Amino acid sequence: MFNSLITRGFTKNTTLFILILGSIIALLDVIENNVIHLKPSDYWDYPLGVYNWWFLFNPEVYLSIIITVFPLLASVPYADSYIEEKKSGFLKSILLRQNKSKYLIRKFLINFAIGGIASIVPLVLNLVVYFSLLPAIKPNLYFGNIPIISFLPDLYVNHPLVYIILRIGNCFIFGGIFASIALTCSLFVENRYIIIGIPFFIYTILDIVLDTLNFQNYSPLKFLFLDVPFTYGIYVIAITTIILLFTAFYFGGEKSENI
Predict the structure, then answer these.
(1) With contact defined as beta carbons under 8 Å apart, do 125 and 171 qualify?
(2) Global model pTM greater than 0.70
(3) In the chain, where are the structural domains located?
(4) So what's the pLDDT on residue 90?
(5) Which of 16, 110, 126, 248 could pair with 26 in a Cys bridge, judged by C-beta atoms 3.0 to 4.6 Å apart?
């Protein structure tokens, strides 16, 4: 049953649509930057490499699109599946074969994973394509090609690949969180478009409010995609939020009489 839920999650039309859309945006960024036509001789004077061209290091129009729609990338694929299964009656057939507690735990975990994966596909694919076209030239302070000055700059300069993995990991975690927000809301709201829009609303309002209060480095929009001062507080917030969302979804689902 767990495998069938995973299969249905990744083959869902909305999941495939978001994965394809994210891939197109990632590829368009590479094409727009025209690095495909660069030759080895173009690197004799130490130009920019992968660690300067990647999405987060070279903010252009396509990164702006990703920044804007990030919560939708996470919530559109699978967060409405609970509503779908409940309305179609498929949920009742599932619960004939497994107890509700297992179903709720698995639903939360699968939704979190799919939301996280869908949200990082553009970043990962963009990175892979650049690695296939450009040399992995480490950032060099003497050439002035350092795009990171606030968010762990030492890690970026000394271990750029580790730095990239950290930034992608952050996007995975918060992509999963936004997907979980939508899933949890689906216990109380039966309109799929509203629940998918709620994470986007929270994401946008948080950025406005935290900007106003001068806490920009706690805004997901800022610390996921822009160069703001790093704080470990984002992980405390992430863990706390995941626990609260899981608790609300699990106990809310257990008490629901509509299943």
Answers:
(1) no
(2) yes
(3) 2-255
(4) 74
(5) 126
- Contact predicate 33/133, CB 8 Å: no
Q: Which two tokens stand for residue 240?
A: 């706390």
DSSP output for the chain: -HHHHHHHHHHSHHHHHHHHHHHHHHHHHHHHHTGGG--GGGGTT----HHHHSGGGS--HHHHHHHHHHHHHHHTTTTTHHHHHHHHSHHHHHHTTS-HHHHHHHHHHHHHHHHHHHHHHHHHHHHHHHHHHS--PPP-GGGT----SSSSHHHHHH-HHHHHHHHHHHHHHHHHHHHHHHHHHTTT---HHHHHHHHHHHHHHHHHHHHHTT-GGG-HHHHHHS-----THHHHHHHHHHHHHHHHHHHHHHH-S--
Q: How far apart are CA 112 and CA 174, in angstroms?
A: 9
Whether the Cβ atoms of residue 210 and residue 224 lie closer than 8 Å to each other:
no
- Token readout for 226 is 């822009």
